[in-house]
Design goal:
The chain is of the alpha+beta class. The protein has a domain of 48 residues. 28% of the residues lie in helices and 18% in strands. It has a three-stranded antiparallel beta sheet, covered by helices on one side. The longest helix is centred in the middle third of the chain and has 21 residues. The mean pLDDT is 87.
Length: 76
């Protein structure tokens, strides 16, 4: 599985399977942004959608989008 198809703006992603067999993905630095799916790819795709929605919300509210600590710049 390659993460090249996913742009998470430098954030670290935790990906694991839970007791029920669902795959969970979340931002290590922002654990409230999370998603799940039947496969790792599905969980990552859902997380990608969630991240885009979060960024859109920040933009709508004229707030700075959170940045990954290792990037050092604002996401546009």
């Amino acid at each position: 599985m390659s993460l090249e198809n996913y742009n998470f703006d430098g954030f670290i992603i935790n990906l694991y399977v839970d007791e029920q067999g669902d795959w969970l993905a979340h931002f290590q630095e922002i654990p409230t942004i999370s998603a799940f799916g039947d496969t790792p790819q599905e969980a990552l795709q859902e997380l990608k959608i969630a991240w885009e929605l979060v960024k859109d919300d920040y933009k709508t509210k004229n707030r700075e989008i959170p940045i990954a600590t290792n990037r050092g710049k604002i996401v546009n």
